């Protein structure tokens, strides 16, 4: 019997196809044509960035398992993107948002961290097989990728995918649940934005600080933004990939050392080179954000980081079989319970501290949607507030590495054996 092979096996050709698909999605999603505006109001662009490449794998155009494209994007572009995204964090500006903004953001993070384990516990009471499973296809492992996505974004999601050795079939299901549930919640937040004045008056929230915030945020971004020159872009390449090289060197030393001397820590993934790679680049990025290197955000540090993430997303999609969601529709219940915990905690805390609806909505979306959609929700309140969404979303990228890992450990402990 002749072994079946994929139609396209040359990784250079595969990478080119993925790049063309991303270009098509971004070109059409930013089109002013009525058809595309209506289409993308229903279908999230991010979903297509996963879905289109997944068709290549589903219909055997490419073999996601044998291609090296994902290895390159996950080991080089993913850590580089985390450096560039955390590099742009301005802690002074974040603190200047005020305590209520930070409280709501961190409440959203806590809601995701505890929501995953609670969803597993609740569903396991009446259907333990739904949240069970063994090895790479265990449900709790797949849920760690949602935790990464909902506390940061695509880079953190991919980090959890590698750290927790998630099976490709389970990941296919989780990506679909992640995007559909997250976008339904985003729709709710946009409805709340349209009624923000009434909602704020109902709980007695003071929104006067938002007017000052609009002015200061606009002034800050106008100050640092400039047209990038070639040397600026080369600085970004040097800093990001130089850090990636250092992180690989450190991971190559620390992971085998832990494996040899403390093998019991393997249950926490502390013997994984990828774990130390991600933790190192995130930590170094945070340290650099306290220096003048943060000014590189003005020449597009986070934009270049986002380009790397979308290339990563396409390469992940290439490994997926989108039809797997048909085999696990019951897992949507887990996703809805998880999001309900996040939303319920946010609404409760917002009412208790009388936080403006803006802080609640953006604090939530900076976690769940990341830099891709937090500015959209922020702009729904006022166009000049979009950068606030970016500011908090970038903080989410930094927290996502640590918080999603912790959430994964909690889910591992409560998952049915």
Description of the molecule:
It is a single chain. The chain has 417 residues and is an all-alpha fold. It is built from 18 helices and no strands. It has one domain (69-414). α16 (357-368) packs antiparallel against α17.
Q: Mean of the pLDDT scores?
A: 85
Q: Uncertain segments of ≥5 residues (pLDDT<50)?
A: none
> What portion of residues is helical?
over 70%
> How many domains in all?
1
Structural class: mainly alpha
Would you count the extended β strands for me? 0
- Please provide the ordered H/E string of secondary-structure elements: HHHHHHHHHHHHHHHHHH
Largest sheet properties:
none
* Total of helices: 18
The best one-word shape is: globular
Span of the ends, CA to CA? 39 Å
Strand content: under 5%
- Mind telling me the C-alpha Rg? 21 Å
Task: Summarize this structure briefly.
This protein has helices at 11-29, 34-42, 45-58, 69-87, 91-96, 99-126, 139-150, 154-163, 168-194, 196-203, 208-224, 230-261, 273-288, 301-317, 331-353, 357-368, 374-381, 386-414. The protein has 417 residues and is an all-alpha fold.
